[in-house]
Write a structure and sequence with these properties.
mainly alpha, 24% helix, flat, binds zinc ion
């Protein structure tokens, strides 16, 4: 994320302090329960169909 998007995922968005990795969660059931608890979406976003680049009239 840092190299590709210049996003520091370990920087606190509230105070700018340093965060630390506590765990890596790979169980989809656990992830769904955590997201539900945080009232965040648990399903994938609907993908929009690809479109032609700007200026490309077909
Ligand atoms: Zn903070």
């Amino acid at each position: 994320m840092q190299r590709a998007f210049a996003i520091d995922v370990l920087e606190c968005p509230e105070c700018g302090g340093r965060l630390r990795l506590l765990a890596t969660i790979i169980s989809s059931d656990a992830i769904q329960r955590i997201l539900s608890h945080l009232q965040l979406p648990t399903s994938r976003p609907v993908l929009a169909p690809a479109r032609a680049p700007p200026g490309d009239v077909g």
